[in-house]
Specification:
alpha+beta, Immunoglobulin-like, Glutaredoxin
Length: 659
């Protein structure tokens, strides 16, 4: 009898434990779901109220409201109708005139364009009727220049014709409006908005009500007879639909207008996302990656499951970013978050907290919660949060092929934008799935004892150096006002921590392994080399370099073109490690420095460490939403070279042609 009771008790205990395990797993799953869904819902709701969220989060003025109405509620194949697009511009703001109105001294300004979006392929656009422009003296270059602008309520009329082969049904007229808001002294970053109007295609044309038609009283009906291919402000910037990719000399283009081209673009974006894992920006999370693989190496099934959740974190962030760029007013660049110094400081604090939790070697009495912030990757929630953090830290960098794909998608309809960013996120997440499925190498790491503790301490110090980097960059951004270049003092803090890590590795290796063991001596030498290399790196990174840079302002660029000088423009930021690597390895090379020292080409730097509206506007004009980026203009302002992944030979070849 007692034996039966004992067996039943043991069975109930086992069943209760199993029930607890299942409950714990479901709680972890629920927490992971919240980790992904809450940020996504936040961004989604933000996109529903773009103006309010943009102002609250990023404190950018939104002085332009855009609306549109159609002359026809229903149309038919071959028929023509007109769309009126109204820009309601608050005082004292204005938007720039068309491209042919802007003076050459102000060629860097973004002209106002109203056109059919690429998604509206069932219509053909006619000649755009613009409102009357007003001449406004502006002082962007230091002296007054007359600039034609649009102010107040400005109405653009776009005639359109329905293609003959269009079937009956409900369609959307998508109008793309690109503009830059300015006052007489400064400008905001340029924006592109898509306005969508529903129109029915049937057997006959049905016009809107009289109140709606009143807005068309000033439309010139003669423009309905002018649908030649040579007109259309609406076609001026549409290009041929091709996206040009250029990385380290490998150049090709894809046409995104068709299904095949779109699939090709998504594939290239996926490759760009995968290559993002190799950029310097992801270096801070390498210690966490190693610890994750080590944690999951014991159970392959659980390791794969954790890898899936980590990949969901990566993908979830890139989806949220795509939704933000597609629908959130004022958010137009992949790495725009890092232009807000407090965000960069916040990332530094988070990374430092993770590093302290990983090291476990500090005697300073900090709050207990600080020491509990350890990267617990063996939970679903920890894996998701690790994936999100990895994706966030990758945004300051641009992988090969990613920059062009992201820039093209930002000008497309929201669904296309989100699809491209989802492809980038998928590409970045795939390597984590592969590593989680095959973590054999991680099993070779010591799992316990003083050697394991030393590994964690060294990785933790490397992570602490990364946190110090972001803290320093954020503080530099707070202390510097564009176009001034931020200081470089934070590199000594970073390199000092890495030097300490090297010495600690050398000392502990000798103590743990003995001075006569080859393995201990080898690791001690590696530690000393790490310390010496960190000191040398600090000296190199704090050196101003051999190039006498001009810090970009619109006036300086205009003056250079007036003087007949070619200009090399380097878009960079202190938080962009890719930018620093390219500058030191390519632009500081003897060959490039010699060609820049002749005076024929002016080196100009656009620093985006903190919010820089003028710099962001020039980046937008170059057709990109990411950095690094190098653009070379000739003396007439013509773009000769543009790349986010370039070599010494590429840059030297272009500079040589300008001598």
């Amino acid at each position: 009898m007692f034996r039966q009771i004992k067996i039943k008790t043991k069975y109930l205990t086992t069943e209760t434990q199993s029930h607890r395990d299942r409950k714990r797993q479901w709680l972890e799953f629920f927490n992971s779901f919240l980790s992904i869904s809450v940020p996504l819902w936040f961004i989604f709701l933000s996109s529903l109220a773009p103006k309010a969220i943009a102002q609250n989060l990023f404190a950018q003025p939104q002085p332009v409201k855009i609306s549109a109405v159609s002359m026809a509620k229903q149309t038919s194949p071959g028929s023509k109708f007109v769309v009126a697009v109204t820009l309601d511009i608050q005082k004292p703001w204005h938007v720039n005139g068309a491209a042919d109105m802007i003076p050459s001294d102000l060629s860097y300004l973004i002209p106002t364009q109203v056109k059919l979006a690429d998604s509206t392929d069932w219509l053909t656009a006619g000649q755009l009727q613009r409102p009357e422009a007003h001449v406004l003296p502006v002082t962007y270059t230091g002296s007054p220049i007359d600039l034609p602008v649009y102010e107040g309520k400005s109405v653009f009329y776009l005639p359109v014709r329905v293609n003959e082969n269009v079937a009956s049904g409900q369609y959307n007229v998508d109008i793309s409006v690109r503009y830059q808001t300015c006052d007489d002294k400064s400008c905001l970053a340029p924006k592109t908005e898509i306005i969508s109007l529903p129109v029915t295609v049937g057997d006959s044309q049905v016009f809107a009500d009289a109140q709606t038609l009143a807005i068309f009283n000033t439309f010139d009906t003669n423009l309905l007879d002018n649908f030649s291919a040579s007109n259309a402000d609406s076609a001026m910037a549409s290009g041929d639909g091709k996206v040009v990719f250029d990385a380290f000399g490998l150049s090709f283009s894809l046409d995104g207008s068709g299904l095949g081209g779109m699939l090709g673009l998504l594939f290239v974006a996926m490759i760009g996302g995968a290559l993002l894992n190799l950029t310097p920006c992801v270096l801070p999370v390498i210690p966490l990656k190693i610890m994750l693989l080590h944690k999951s190496a014991q159970t392959r099934g659980k390791g794969l499951l954790l890898g899936i959740f980590m990949s969901l974190g990566v993908l979830g962030f890139w989806l949220a970013l795509g939704i933000a760029i597609a629908g959130l007013s004022g958010f137009s660049e992949v790495n725009q978050l890092f232009q807000y110094p407090m965000f960069t400081v916040g990332m530094g604090v988070v990374i430092c907290a993770l590093a302290i939790g990983m090291c476990g070697l500090f005697d300073i009495k900090l709050p207990t919660k600080v020491y509990n912030v350890t990267p617990k990757h063996d939970t679903f929630t920890g894996s998701v949060l690790f994936g999100i953090m990895t994706a966030v830290l990758s945004t300051p960098c641009t992988g090969p092929f990613m920059g062009a794909a992201a820039a093209w998608s930002a000008t497309q309809p929201p669904l296309v934008t989100v699809a491209v960013f989802a492809a980038i996120g998928t590409g970045m997440a795939i390597p984590y799935l592969i590593l989680s499925a095959f973590p054999a190498l991680a099993r070779k790491m010591p799992s316990a004892g003083p050697v394991s503790l030393l590994v964690k301490q060294i990785l933790g110090l490397c992570l602490l150096a990364a946190g110090a980097y972001f803290l320093g960059v954020g503080l530099n951004g707070l202390l510097t006002t564009p176009p001034d270049e931020p200081g470089l003092w934070h590199w000594w803090l970073v390199c000092g921590i890495l030097t300490a890590a090297g010495f600690w590795l050398a000392i502990r290796s000798i103590k743990l392994g003995g001075a006569k063991r080859p393995a201990a001596i080898t690791w001690a030498i590696i530690g000393l080399l790490m310390a010496g290399g960190s000191i040398a790196m600090g000296r190199s990174l704090t050196d101003k370099g051999p190039i006498d840079w001009e810090m970009y302002t619109p006036a300086k660029l205009a003056q250079a073109q007036t003087d007949g000088k070619a200009v090399l423009v380097d878009f960079t930021a202190q938080w962009c490690l890719n930018c620093q690597v390219l500058e030191h390895q390519v632009l500081h090379s003897d060959q490039v420095v010699q060609l820049l020292s002749t005076g024929k080409v002016i080196p100009m730097k656009v620093d985006l460490t903190s919010a820089n509206p003028d710099g962001s506007a020039l980046l937008e004009k170059a057709g990109r939403v990411t950095i690094p980026l190098l653009v070379i203009y000739d003396a007439n302002g013509k773009e000769l070279f543009k790349s986010d992944s370039y070599t010494i030979s590429q840059v030297s070849k272009v500079l040589q042609s300008l001598q």
